Amino acid sequence: MTNNGNQAIIALEHVVKRFPSGRTWFTALKDINLTLGRGEFAGLVGPSGSGKTTLLNLIGSLDSPSEGRVDVLGREVGKMNARESATMRKKHLGFIFQTYNLIPVYTVYENVEFPLLLLKEKADKRRKAVLEALEWLGIESKAKSKPTQLSGGECQRVAIARAMVKKPEIVLADEPTANLDAENSHHILQTMEQLNRELGTTFLFATHDEKVIKYLKRKIRLFDGKVASDEIIQS
Amino acid sequence: MIRFLIKGLLRDRQRSLLPLLVVSIGVMLTVFMHAWVTGVLGDGIEFKARFETGHVNVTTRAYAENAGQIPIDLSLEGAGEMLEILHSEYPDMTWVERTRFGGLIDVPDESGETLSQGPVTGIAIELLNENSHEKERMNLTDALVRGHFPDEPGEILISDNLFEKLGISLGQEVTLITTSMYGSMVFHNFRISGTLSFGMGALDKGTVIMDLEDARLALDMQDATAEILGFFASEYFEPETAKAMCQAFNEKYSYPEDKFSPLMQNMRSYPQIANLIDYAGLMTFIISAIFILVMSIVLWNTGLISGLRRYGEMGVRLAIGESKGHVYRSLISESVAIGLAGSVAGTLAGLLCAYILQEKGLHFDVNMDTAAVMMPSTLRAHITPVTYCIGFIPGLLSTVLGTMLSGIGIYKRKTAELFKELE
Q1: How confident is the model at residue B175 (pLDDT cuts 50, 70, 90)?
Q2: Is A100 on the interface with B (CB under 8 A)?
Q3: pLDDT at B18 (0 to 100)
Q4: Which of B11, B312, B416 sits opposite A105 (nearest CB)?
Q5: Cβ <8 Å between A114 and B312
Q6: Residues A58-69: what's their mean pLDDT?
Q7: Dist. CA A44–CA A176, nearest whole Å
Q8: C-alpha to C-alpha distance for B175 and B217, rounded to whole angstroms
Q9: Is A91 on the interface with B (CB under 8 A)?
Q10: Tell me, what's the ipTM?
């Protein structure tokens, strides 16, 4: 099912993920079936160890399933080679991390510009896109600052700008507000909600933060590697 | 993209300045050590060449066979003509005549009776010829203890030990008792102009140094010389060139059936010196190899740590969509740049240090009075063509190999695992 009835851009069928654990195997995901449509603002919700990040990694083509099938934008993740996965991430996916993961030696402008360099965009097009992204996030005045000169909230804004600058179809955010205070969390979430509304980008969160959960339009609750519930919030 | 990566490299001192410093220092030490070991071990051989054998030498076949006995009766006649041939055929070499001989020095008292006597080894060199570099070659200026160098025929230098032992005074006349080239007994008077001390027993026991023309007069060696020594312009023994020279010369001028025909030999023709040269070569190789190995491990580690430190950054770059191959290639390109810059800087610094020690040398005053082996008292580095490139082995190769190894982790780990490390 999809929230908005749109065409499914993420589809998981009977997905199982196992990791080696000593001499045995640990099953992190058990028979997951899930579909997400274009423009959704959804979240994988659940306690630590429930399989949120593992599922996000599979959708982000950072890992492949042990069993079942993960389709992202019509491509089966398990059948893509490393280069194809990288191309998928480069062109269509944006990542936002709990710890921001900005590259410390580069300025805010350069961190945001990096995905466009990988896409080999021309300089003038890059400049326009970066400035636009910084403006969306309200950090254009910080363009020349280094990440170490920014607050946590500002760093996360830069991380969002970096994820959004190439206007990806899907943004995967893993605990994006875990290191932020309430006020900053709300600002960030409002910004993401706005981007989802204006650009139609699909957002998928992995979180157990109530502040984030309040903003979600779809809550997919995971427990012990299984989908425990899938709830669509009517606005 | 390249500009972007260079910008990152230059800004991150842990990635650029620190490895650059480590590589430069490692390469500098390697280059310097190689030049030093080559110089010190080579100097022992050169010392032997300057005092005894030359890099090559020409003598008669008979003299060569009995060289240990310094048999002046088997000396080379027609030395002037032979010198002309050598100068014209090998103009880049320096050719000098030398005659060594054994004898007795008799010191008379006031009434002319023998006061004291002592055995001597005489070395006749071009001492009065102002164009000759024999004084420098044999380091006589530093060895002069009393008096002055002979400035007219009939004056000689004597080792300071013997001078004291025989109770001689400066300017005193002494009698050299020896045999002439034709086997007759010779008594010839010389005046002592100065004394020498080389700091080693082998030479200080009883050496007399005199001008070649004086020796010719005393030993009846008109237009003859025991040996003609040849020295390469580089001032270092060049084994391959020397071997080729000897072969060409002997094919043209030396006849096995004529024991008085000239024979050209090189340092390696003397088994003891050949062993010394082989030993020096082996020691240079071993010491350099150990040093290169140690430096390689250090620099390899630097490359490895530098790569491991950046696994987090790699995770971000992979997540953003950079391919593993691109990340790996960019890591290697960075290490090539660092390795190359460090190797060039280190080689230049190492060469500079080596050059200073090659020119100035390191003088030491260790007493070698009892030493039987001739060794120089000033040790010098020696820059060879190998010195210019040896630093690139640890500097470039090891740094890049270390980075390549650490980078393999990028391929071996699943992207998601790199990602976990990032978190």
Answers
A1: very high
A2: no
A3: 83
A4: B11
A5: no
A6: 91
A7: 12
A8: 14
A9: yes
A10: 0.82
Q: How far is A25 from chain B (nearest CA, A)?
A: 16
How close does chain A come to B398, measured CA to CA in Å? 26
DSSP labels for A118-155? HTT--HHHHHHHHHHHHHHTT-GGGTT--GGGS-HHHH
Q: At residue A6, does pLDDT exceed 70?
A: no
Phi and psi of B193, rounded to 5°? -95, -25
CB B223 within 8 A of CB B97: no
Name the residue range of residue A17's domain: 8-232
pLDDT > 90: percent of chain A: 55
pLDDT above 90: residue B87: yes
Give B374's strand partners.
none
For tokens 């028979």, the residue is A31
Residue A3 in domain: no
> pLDDT tens for residues B220-270?
999 999 999 999 998 888 889 999 999 999 999 999 999 999 999 999 888
Is B238 within 8 Å of chain A by CB?
Answer: no
pLDDT at A98 over 70: yes
In Å, what is the CA distance from B98 to each residue of B59, B150, B222? 10, 17, 14
Inspect the interface and report whether the beta carbons of A103 and B8 lie closer than 8 Å: yes
Asked if the model's pLDDT at residue B93 lies above 50, the reply is yes
Is A191 a domain residue? yes
Kindly list the residues from chain B whose CB atom is less than 8 angstroms away from the CB atom of residue A82.
Answer: 323-324, 415
Q: B56 pairs with which residues across the strands?
A: B230, B266
Q: Is A172 a domain residue?
A: yes
- pLDDT average, residue stretch A143-155: 91
Helix (H) or strand (E) holding B177: strand B173-179
Considering only CA atoms, which of A187, A188, A197 is closest in space to residue A217?
A197
Chain A residues whose beta carbon lies within 8 Å of the beta carbon of residue B319: 60, 62, 89, 95, 97, 101
Residues of A with Cβ-Cβ distance to B317 under 8 angstroms: 114
Mean pLDDT, chain B, integer? 86
pLDDT confidence of residue B281: 81
C-alpha count within 13 angstroms, C-beta hemisphere, residue A187: 16
Asked if residue A203 belongs to a domain, the reply is yes
Residue in chain B lying closest to A65 (CA): B416
pLDDT tens per residue, range A17-41: 998 888 899 999 999 999 999 999 9
3-state DSSP percent of chain B in helix, strand and coil, to 5: 55, 20, 25
For chain A, the domain total comes to 1
Q: Is B17 on the interface with A (CB under 8 A)?
A: no
Over residues B207-226, the pLDDT tens digits come to: 999 999 999 999 999 999 99
The CATH number covering residue A158 comes to 3.40.50.300
Of B125, B120, B123, B124, nearest in space to B103 by CA: B120
pLDDT of the residue at B332: 87
| Letter string b/e over residues B266-304, b meaning 16 or more CB atoms within 10 A of that residue's CB | bbbbbeebeebbeebeeebeebbeebbeebbebbbebbb
Tokens of A178: 């875990």
B372, pLDDT greater than 50: no
Report the gap between the CA of B328 and the closest CA in chain A (Å): 13
B319 vs A62: CB contact, 8 Å cut-off? Answer: yes
Contact A63 B416 (CB under 8 A): yes
What is the SS3 assignment for A233? coil
Q: A62 vs B1: CB contact, 8 Å cut-off?
A: no
Q: Does A62 touch chain B (CB under 8 A)?
A: yes
